[in-house]
Amino acid sequence: MPSGAVVDTSELDRELSAIERRVTDYSPITPVLAEILVSAVNDRWMSGGDGQWPPLAASTLYKRRLHGKGAQILLDTGRAAASVQADSGDTWAQAATDVSYMVFHVSDGARSKIPLRDPFDVEEAAWPDMADALDTWITEG
After folding, report:
1. Which of 14, 17, 54, 88 has its CA 20 to 30 A from that of 104?
2. Domain of 40?
3. How far from the centroid of its chain's Cα atoms is residue 98's Cα?
């Protein structure tokens, strides 16, 4: 055997194997990603689409005030906002709602009365937090 410095790489092999498992099996991190998405949806909801949602029509405001209701966009009853749930699987994560009327607010379909106000349009806003979570999970486990 040659003489010289000897390096034991067994610990490195174990760590690389653990990293390999983490980058091929996402199931442990997808619930965390789903919760990050829910948080981003809630932030968007509470900020009125980051202040970008069109205001309520004067006719809508009149009807709401006539019936003693408020003027918060998509928040007056709180039903839709409270329905947002995290869901995930082995390879996916989402924030979703089962409130049927939300389809009218989030679809890309032609609009004649209800303007687009999509609280689920959060991928860009959520990505930094999701990237941090993924980085931590991959490198630290």
Report:
1. 88
2. 29-140
3. 16
